[in-house]
Amino acid sequence: MFEVFAAVAIVFAALMVLSRNPVRSVLSLVVAFFALAGCYVLLFSPFIAVIQVIVYAGAILVLFLFVLMLLNVGPERPEKTGRPIQTLLSGIAIVLFAGFLLSALRHSGSAAPRALAGEPNVLGRPEALARELFSGYLLHFEAVSILLLSALVGAFVLARRDREPRG
Amino acid sequence: MIALWVIPVIPLVGFALNGLLGTRLGKGFVSAVGVGSAGLATLAAYSRLIPYLSSGGGTPVIEPYGSWIVAGSLSIDLSFRLDPLSALMLSFVTFVGFLIHVYSVGYMHHDETDAGYARYFGYLNLFLFAMLVLVLAETFLLMFVGWEGVGLCSYLLVGYYYDREYAAAAGKKAFVVNRIGDFGFLLGMFGLFTTFGSLSYSEVFGKAAGNPALYQPALTLICLCLFVGAVGKSAQVPLYVWLPDAMAGPTPVSALIHAATMVTAGVYMVTRCNVLFRLAPEAMAVVAGIGAFTAIFAGTIAVAQNDIKKVLAYSTVSQLGYMFLACGVGAYVAGMFHVMTHAFFKACLFLGSGSVIHAMGGEQDMRKMGGLKSKLPITFWTFLVATLAIAGIPPLAGFFSKDAILAGAFEAGGLRILWAVGLFTAGLTAFYMFRLVSLTFFGRFRGTPDQEHHLHESPPSMTLPLIVLAILSVVGGWVGLPAVFGENANVFARFLAPVLPGLKGVEEHAALPHATEWALMAVSVLVAAAGLLLAWSWYARGEGRTPARIAAASPGVYALVADKFRIDELYGVLFVKPFYWLSRTLWKVVDVLLIDGVLNAGAFVVELTGDLLRFLQTGNVRNYALTFLLGLVALLLVVAGWI
Amino acid sequence: MIGTIPLSEVLIVSGALFCIGLCGALLRRNAIQIFLSIELMMNSANLAILGYGASLGTREGQIVVFFVIAIAAAEAAVGLAIFVALFRHTETIDVNRINLLKW
């Protein structure tokens, strides 16, 4: 099961990256996020999966869509000033990085198939999660809420249309 | 009973007042403060001197004023000392200084602005302060403070007419040449400290006298170094070249600093350290040799000079040579005696020449003078008295002091070359001094009619000091009558005896039998008289025809002598030019090329790097992201150990 | 089924998603699409964290991801507001053309 969801996620992620049309990118990413939510369920995190769908796919990406509509962005035209060095170096760097990740994986001993432990029902229960969240991580919770408030205010201020110049 | 420190501080206060307020408050204020502080200092000095003298003046009075420098093993106190030697110096430094301050009022009044007048008296007071510190100090370092101070004031006052190129240059020359001597003094002090562990007179002399053999090789070296300082300050060969040039300063300055006080500081120092010198016979021999050579050398130059002040300058150098000759042969009493009498008659001569120059409207060339005795009677008579004194005609002061020196030189035994040199120089002295008198006061007037109209006697502020000094030139010698006049006749010698303790291991010369003394006296009087008469016949009666023929007969020799043997030019080639070359090279090559070059190159490299690095700022976000990634990859590779 | 997912597989998936996101972030010209790729990278990290949390039998993974999602939301809001403001000034979101801080 997990492989299926993972494959879907990867495919649509690649589609997102390759697509010229930004709207298509966003939609592909939505599908990928759904697939990821499925993966999360299989990793004993049903609550997080739901949050992913509601917040990430449903709010954030929708916001992206709104902005795309607002800016009326069209498909990307082919690059006129070809800057091959940028592409080349990026490619090399990414390859190196990927290679590094792979070897880190191999060397770290997580390569050996290690089964996931824990009872699925126990680990993912929202009730238990909430209890842990609001007891040990209460401060973090409150801090994040303040962060959200400031982000709200910030976004509002930044996107405001400029008023008439004063004076 | 006032403390000793008050005596130098009074002129220091005068300097401060004149320096700060003099320009604003005018010449009256400046004169009052300047002369007043000199007078007050004299009174203060005598208020301590008279009780000291009447009590016999044996034991030295040391007034400590607390610690001055304490650094590790070096501990120097601030203290003043009143003993026969410093009392002697104090007596005439203050009094002659006061007279010259009075004279300066008349001399400097008309020609100077208020600012210049205040500056002059300020510096003069400052000089008095420094000289008094020098004389009263109880430690070498404190004396050195005064030593440097008088050097500074000499520079300031010689360069008083700072807008005249040659006066400014003369001031610099005085300071620089003095400095060379001071370096020797410093080395001597370092030697004293490392050898004796102290810089106070009582300690150093006490230790040296107590155990002479212990300090022996170091002692000669120290004495020679100290003597180098004296050579600089008292204008002996080879560091005399600044004194004739220093005549560029106002004449009262020449009288005070370069005749009566500053230049005698070297003799004072050598006499103060007589304990050290007497334990180092080689050093004393050097002192005597240089003194004698300087005396005759300067005397010959004086014969061919035409500037009235230059003659007196070389005469001063020559007489200082006499004083060092005396110290070198062990006749310290005679040396100090001559210091005192020389102060009287040389100051009188300089002030008299100032009077003549004043009357001649600034002219200093004797060839343009003549016949002034009728126009300037007081000046003439005082000048004549002082000339007879310096020539050594009894019973004037110079005779007794010079005779004491010659007797000492004769006593020293050996080949008596020093005595012969001294005797010949005495004749030279009489000759060139009377040449000066003849050219200036006798014969016809040889100047311009304008100058002739201007001739007038000087005001009382100038003539009164002349008269006082002339009287002192007459009677001043009577305190030091030689032994032939009675065993206790030499008051002066008895007074100074405590400063010259007996030292074990050093034998004193046997006193001369009376007959020899009378013979010596007769010989010196004859030689002096011969010189006088020759000068009179050649210059007063003969109007200079004979010397002119002699000069024409050997023009090369005459030119050499008149040109002071071209020593200045020699120094220029040997020392001055190389130094200029060195400084120019250090400047152009080392400083500009190397040091500045290195700094500029560094700055250039930084600038270049910046210019190149700024191309990294493309403004393109993708490039920055790429850079992040590349950096991250590199870091990871390093951490993993693959690079 | 559930419970037999090897951790290494989770990590491989996560790594692959991350690299795909990296490609997108470096090689696209459209600012919005670059931002989307960054969101993808964040999600790949979330996946990895959840994988570890599950394999260690603790709930901390979920809690961390919870906070990450909240913060990502805030960040997306602010970032898009910036894009909007930028677009108003420059009429473009092609990052190659937004290079005012050039040397």
Verbal overview:
In chain A, helix 1 (2-18) packs antiparallel against helix 2 (22-42) and helix 2 runs antiparallel to helix 3 (46-71). The longest helix of chain A has 26 residues, at 46-71. With 167 residues, chain A is an all-alpha fold. Chain A is built from 7 helices and no strands. Helix content of chain A is 75%, strand content 0%. Chain A has helices at 2-18, 22-42, 46-71, 84-107, 120-124, 126-136, 138-159. Among the domains of chain B are: 280-502 and 511-554, no CATH class; 582-640, no CATH class. Chain B has helices at residues 6-54, 84-108, 114-136, 140-158, 165-196, 201-210, 216-233, 242-245, 251-260, 265-272, 274-278, 281-303, 308-328, 332-359, 377-391, 397-411, 417-441, 449-454, 460-475, 491-496, 514-541, 545-553, 555-562, 567-613, 621-640; strands spanning 61-71, 74-82. In chain B, strands 1-2 form a two-stranded antiparallel ribbon. Chain B is globular and about 115 Å long. Chain C has helices at residues 7-27, 31-56, 60-90. Chain C is built from 3 helices and no strands. Chain C is mainly α and 103 residues long. Chain C is elongated, with a radius of gyration of 17 Å. Chains in contact: A-B, A-C, B-C.
Task: Point out poorly predicted stretches of chain A.
Answer: none
- Unreliable stretches of chain B (pLDDT < 50, length at least 5) are none
Biggest pleated sheet of chain A: none
Strand content of chain A: under 5%
Number of separate helices of chain B: 25
Q: How far is the first residue's CA from the last residue's CA of chain A?
A: 65 Å
Work out the radius of gyration of chain A.
21 Å
| Count of alpha and pi helical runs of chain A | 7
Oligomer: heterotrimer
Roughly how many Å apart are the termini of chain B?
91 Å
What string gives the helices and strands of chain B in order?
A: HEEHHHHHHHHHHHHHHHHHHHHHHHH
Helix content of chain A: over 70%
Compact summary:
The complex is a heterotrimer of chains A (167), B (643) and C (103). Chain B has 643 residues and is mainly alpha-helical. Helices cover 73% and strands 3% of the residues of chain B.
Task: Give the tags.
heterotrimer; A: 167 residues; mainly alpha; 7 helices; C: 103 residues; Helix Hairpins; elongated
Write the layout of secondary structure elements.
The complex is a heterotrimer of chains A (167), B (643) and C (103).
Chain A lengths: L1 H17 L3 H21 L3 H26 L12 H24 L12 H5 L1 H11 L1 H22 L8
Chain B lengths: L5 H49 L6 E11 L2 E9 L1 H25 L5 H23 L3 H19 L6 H32 L4 H10 L5 H18 L8 H4 L5 H10 L4 H8 L1 H5 L2 H23 L4 H21 L3 H28 L17 H15 L5 H15 L5 H25 L7 H6 L5 H16 L15 H6 L17 H28 L3 H9 L1 H8 L4 H47 L7 H20 L3
Helix pairs in contact in B: 1-2, 1-3, 2-3, 2-9, 2-14, 2-19, 3-4, 4-5, 5-7, 7-10, 7-12, 9-14, 12-13, 12-17, 13-14, 13-16, 13-17, 14-15, 14-16, 14-19, 15-17, 15-19, 16-17, 16-21, 17-21
Chain C lengths: L6 H21 L3 H26 L3 H31 L13
